[in-house]
Design brief:
The structure is a homotetramer of 364-residue chains. Chain A is of the alpha+beta class. Chain A contains 9 helices and 18 strands. In chain A, the strands form 6 sheets. A 5-stranded antiparallel β-sheet of chain A has the order 1-2-3-7-4. Chain A has a 5-stranded antiparallel β-sheet with strand order 9-8-10-16-11. The first copy, chain A, has a two-stranded antiparallel sheet with strand order 5-6.
Chain lengths: 364, 364, 364, 364
């Protein structure tokens, strides 16, 4: 019941700090018998690694996944799986200096109050985006488990800095996504996004965006109402990712301005199965999966670390202070956050599938 | 750890059905020593009761709150508080007829699969908006507890059917809210919303909208990162309310198209306290409350029950079927959902405050 | 995560008070499709009802089980099942008088401190043995679920007041148990126990004893190490029953004085299955069921309510005080506690079986 | 909610394997501001290390405690604390050979079924007593936290191989305990126990015993009825330690043969405080601490690993098989288990104290 944990039967717990010795995830409740090695995890870590695009930080981390427990002779044992990445390229030099002046948009101030000033403030400590690397490792395990049931999680960039991608076919999304450095399946929009990013970089500013995640082949019937719903569990997990400020499902906020007759999805028979003609519900009715793709969109705020001068307060003497954040930062974390969203969503579906008995305790 | 439960230390569990004998909430972890009687709960139930506006269903329920345990000599005892409403005006006649044909936009189909057809389908069973009456009762207790710490939860309608209210001062919101039948503080917008509702009613259609909730006087430092965050817990709770399809905090989805320099809230000193010049963060940084108002907006989809003809499937013989839903329904549940949002948000803050030790085990 | 709850996937929550309006249990996570009516529950309640033997209180409660939710058309729906008993024969007259003088061996004093004096002290409030009636109702549902998998829970009295029953064959235990008013399968021992009870009654005193519970046909492989073990979960549940002061499994405390070569159970093949030659492990190795009968013994302290004069303290003025507890009490609750142990153990096995996927979400 | 976890607000999760790379504990919910370094943890590990007495295994592990996260500048940060010990002296050579023949009294067979044969069987994997080293590290943190409130946890050996220690004054227990290699405060009994152990060693056999734990200065009012009681939580935690087969509180099983008038503890006034004249309740009434010492006794079965020939089954061909367990084992783990009991009991009290608000979120 740790607050750093997600999941009831498939549980992951995060630990570590941005500038400490390591970041890690502990998975408990992973079925025994899943083939697993670092080679299953490393590719996901590599996808998250900065450097793929102009949007990313210049911090370079080798980010080598390491399995410390729970795997034996190449298979999961059913025991807790400890996954870690040892930190190597951390540069803490600037943080001591700016410590008394909390950075706008960051957790510096709230963490300082919450933990009485004892929090590791270097690089944001546990609030750093760096911890999402640990989530990505756990997500790689979750995705491997879901693959047994053919469940796929695909995320892609649908907006950056006000540029919206046009809807694309899911096959196009899959094909384009990892080839395009912004992970946007609409090449024209991607080009415009890139231009915006370059401009923001020049201005020492940053940009946000919107990520859409689609879960395919989720069987009908997952979800535990009233509160452990598919949407509720996903939203809670996704909001654990730094910088996410909103979550919507299916038609989401746009449903608010529609008629019921527009927004309801008619039931139809397709390939002998019950389906819906449209998917405004985003694959969820009453908190339970409908069998249609689960569609979630998450709003990512612009990276709070910008090189422009900002106004803050010196906590030592309670005076106004100027702040210019140096260091290496992503102009726009959206392309990297795509990988993190896939991870936490995969983790959540694993837990829901375990509770529904769809993924057994032992993989035969 | 029941899936019908919310909260770790202040826990509420919902039970009952729309057309069963009752709906109820069980509160565990309520501090001892809170003065409590039905008179504290009934006004909240009355606020939720249909009939205040043209938007509401014509179903009439006396909705009498009843405390069955946990209160002794006018004070909470620290033991579980069982709150119930006995159902009286349920009309189940039409549901048997439409049972094989799941209603679009409702949980009929998913519930039928999830529960193997054993679910109580009358009026949606546990998926009915009626269960929110039980949440409102628990919310009334939570609000009383929060009031000890001066924490206030205020929700209001900011959009219906595409009509957006202009931002209002929070004092105006408080003043206007319960006087305006749509719970919208902008009178001009409210008039337009009403016109839309009347039109939708005539057309046998329905409308959605957006509700904003503001939590005032939440002290800095609530929230349990990484995952039991203020935003994560609120989102999970709010998505347990039927018809909510999206949740955002502060600038929310609009943050996605802003620059970091626009979206960051500068820290300032105000009345000797640290505050932020703007509140795009919605009172949450790193999942922890900042001391500024917590601002959440929720998208409410249009009521799925409409009188217009819809397309569905007959589950008995897997053939296409027409469906016209009779019965009494809200054209737009937004005004009533305002009260429900206040309730689940109050419940969530109570739990967060209990965990932070702000609300003690005994009210002195 | 309410502290009045047991179980992760099959969860029961207790509520109500001894002298309040009702006692009840709320079950969440019960599979849909189980045939259930009050007629399944009432017989278990009747078994617990006082009056079967000389050992029991003279308080008479009709104790009518009532199902308020979660059952529709004779089957469980998968929604929370609310089970209640309305209190009828409560006599609270004496409790006001003795309120300032906590009864030795009762929770009066600790409850008063824990709840700041706001607890319902009448008849012990939530600490009363009366709440076990609610557990027995939930246990009846659990036992019906376990019966699907042929799992049986049988408890019986093995000691009262220092008189020990000789070990009996499990068939003899089953046969004898409900016929013998003390629920002791050894008739000679039972006769001696009865004599002790009569003597204790005459002396205004009370007796304790030991109850053995055997779970038959529990498949090998239940239990979630390291801490959600079969023994850990059972012990926690059983210690929730008032008056239980010790729990042991298999050879239990007597293992402490044995050699390893005596206490280890050799593995053998029996009817083509792996079994153990002896069962000193009580059916549990490493917290996981072995397939052998699960054997738990619980120590029941003598009923603290005795008619003899006792020494206590007046909380109002912190002076020594004499106390003579009037009212109607069991001389020895062991025979009635037998039924309660069966209930909580059945509830715990249901949860473990749900987690192991042995009992599905829907009963076909 | 991982099954490898203990605690709601102060949560520890165990991981690692006996013959894997490491064993570890992850603590979440530790207050910020506690001074902590490896030097606080190592002494407890050293106390648990084998070699103190003739009873212990000859396996030698450096057992160096290492803090990987959650501590910064010498203080806990409030973030998860990852504590590990890297395994160094593991000898896995014999386990491959005996793999198909489960050792009597060990978890080999149940683990094999539970995890479909994928469990790490070397040295018992996660079921090894070695994992208790990780619990001892977490316990060292818990004890430091409890010390702030003056709460002390003291365990000692009260029986080995049928030799019972005479009751000793708690000061004598404290003084004698770590000096006596068997951690028994009665020197005469200790001498006899040692003789029994030597004899058992010569015979290739093993012995069990009983450990008593006393928690001093626990304030009145801890515990969350009905089920998260002091006794229920302690029992669950203690039964997570391998080889524990029974738990009792206060007069425990001996209460079963007493009269109520003997077993009830009269309330008295002592030093201006309410106390009880005796402590048969073991410091717990109604699941809530009374303010008196909390007294728990745990039955430890004889070490199942013995050098004598035993009967088992070859799982490969389902034939009877002989087994002689080689390797290095404790003749009697009781003296080392003393340290482990202190640890898990300290962990449990930390969690109960956190829930009661007695230990705050930040240590001032």
């Amino acid at each position: 019941m740790s607050s750093s944990s997600l999941g009831k039967l498939f549980t992951i717990t995060s630990f570590g700090e941005s500038h400490g010795r390591l970041v890690g995830s502990l998975i408990d409740g992973c079925p025994a018998g899943l083939p697993l090695s670092e080679a299953d995890i490393q590719p996901e870590l590599d996808r998250r690694r900065p450097g793929a695009s102009a949007a990313d930080t210049t911090r370079r981390e080798a980010d080598q996944a390491e399995i410390l427990s729970g795997v034996f002779n190449g298979f999961t044992t059913g025991a807790p799986i400890c996954l870690v990445i040892w930190n190597r390229d951390a540069d803490s030099s600037q943080y001591e200096k700016i410590r008394p002046t909390p950075r706008p948009g960051q957790a510096d101030y709230t963490a300082s109050v919450r933990y009485g000033g004892f929090n590791d403030y270097r690089g944001g400590g546990i609030f750093s985006g760096r911890l999402t690397a640990a989530l990505v490792m756990a997500g790689a395990v979750a995705r491997k488990l879901l693959a047994i049931k053919n469940i796929e999680i695909i995320a892609h960039t649908v907006a950056i800095g006000g540029v919206n991608a046009l809807p694309q076919d899911i096959q196009a999304v899959k094909a384009a996504c990892d080839r395009n450095p912004l992970r946007c399946a609409d090449p024209e929009a991607a080009a415009k996004m890139l231009a915006r990013i370059e401009q923001a970089r020049e201005e020492g500013d940053s940009l946000g965006g919107i990520i859409e995640t689609v879960a395919l082949n989720v069987p009908v019937g997952l979800g535990e109402p009233l509160f452990d719903t598919v949407d509720g569990e996903l939203a809670k997990a996704v909001l654990g990712i730094p910088a996410i400020k909103g979550v919507e499902f299916g038609s989401g906020f746009s449903a608010a301005s529609r008629y019921g007759s527009e927004n309801n999805d008619d039931f139809i028979i397709k390939d002998g199965q019950i389906a819906t003609a449209t998917n405004n519900a985003g694959g969820i009715l009453g908190g339970i999966s409908t069998g249609m793709p689960i569609v979630l969109r998450a709003a990512v705020k612009p990276t709070p670390s910008i090189s422009r001068n900002q106004q803050t307060v010196n906590l030592n003497d309670m005076t106004p202070a100027d702040l210019t954040v140096l260091g290496r930062h992503d102009v726009c974390i959206v392309p990297r956050a795509v990988v993190v969203l896939e991870a936490v969503i995969a983790i959540t579906f694993c837990d829901l599938a375990r509770r529904a008995g769809i993924i057994p305790r032992v993989i035969a």
